[in-house]
Amino acid sequence: MAHSRLVAVATLSVAFGATVLTGQGPSPLVSRDASGELLTISSAGTVDLTNLFFQDLGTNGRRCVTCHLPDQGWTITPTAVQERFEASAGHDPIFRNNDGSNCQGADISTLRRRRSAFSLLLSRGLIRVGIDVPGDAEFVIESVDDPYQCPPSFTSPLASASMYRRPLPATNLPFLTAIMWDGREPTLAHQADDAIQGHAQGAPLTPDQQGAIVTFETGLFTAQAADHAAGRLTAQGGLGGADALSNQLFFPGINDPVGLNPTGAPFDPRAFTIFGRWLLLKGDGRAVEARRSVARGEEIFDAKPFTISGVAGLNGESFASGVTVPGSFSGTCTVCHDSPNVGNHSVKAPLNLGLTDASRRTPDMPLYTLRNKTTNATVQTTDPGRAMVTGRWADIGKFKGPILRGLAARAPYFHNGFAATLEDVVEFYDERFSIGLTVQQKVDLVAFLRSL
After folding, report:
1. How many domains does the chain have?
2. Cβ distance 298 to 276 under 8 Å?
3. Using N-to-C axis directions, what is the helix angle for 188-198 and 207-218, rounded to 10°?
4. Considering the domain boundaries, does residue 350 fall inside one?
5. pLDDT digits over 127-178, tens only?
6. Does residue 139 belong to any structural domain of this protein?
7. Which structural domain, as residue segments, surrounds residue 256?
């Protein structure tokens, strides 16, 4: 596995391509990405590379760091996964049949078969998540059109489903309001225990082990520090990078748009205030113009209105605050990305943007047909989302919005890697909500997102 992107991380050793970090790492921890430089700091002062996060606690060679690498935004990228496959002939610990392959128990006896069995991990960086249909679910899975023919896809109704999802970053966790894409984990400690038992096939963690991992993770803050075009993101009054992020005020509901802020403060659509000073920059030169582009992108994100409609979990919903959201209304990107200078939702609010609709299915994704037990209505989806946790028909296709900091290092995007680039992300939203962005506005938005 190539590690030229990672700078000064103490000692790196390679075993079957798996990164094993030892010793005390520097803080900040600096790595290079396609847009420039990513920076991670720890509230502990140094990044403790001896933490259990980096140790083998399972039985299949995996560690937390196997799928949460510092130089990939504390997740994984397909390019790096492909490097690991080639370096290890598909034997790196990330390539395990319990959840790394398209089907559990796939034939991985030859190099060709391993390449086929792990195709989604290689192409999109997706891990298979198998979940049983809740016993009290309002629906049944009537059938699945499965390109991999994973058993028991021939039975009806299906008792479980395989979903393919991106590992979420193991950094910036103090800003979380929901754990996992479908919000199924109640606490970070519980999630760490489930990860060791499930992904690493290990024994349950002790409370002390859980606590050690959680303390390490919640001390990490990661953000883009430099951009190839704009330069240092703290220059000329910019507030980019991890230092400012680590001091960002946050509490659940801090800027919620439906009145769930516990202080009673109103929603402020200007949720991002990192690069505003760059709007006023004068002069010429590549870096100055690039900084103005980043600032214009932030202004678009905060302030450009468009019609928000058809979003299950938002439009037409009534909330505990007494607010009922109309079926359509004018808003900005920050209605859903409201946490100040972080970009996730400041309360647990899974939403359905239509990413798993049958119309957006690609040939490498399964298509599930779900039937409502009461009405017999059916819906087709590539991933039932939060409905596999709650059993609620209304939760089909709902996912949380992730934290937006450190985006440039961790393509592809969305829970299923649907968008290969940040340009694709912007195109999706522009089409989905008929925003009508100009070419320059799209360029500016991408410049802003890659600077987070």
Report:
1. 1
2. yes
3. 110
4. yes
5. 999 999 999 999 999 999 999 999 877 788 899 999 999 999 999 999 999 9
6. no
7. 251-355+399-452
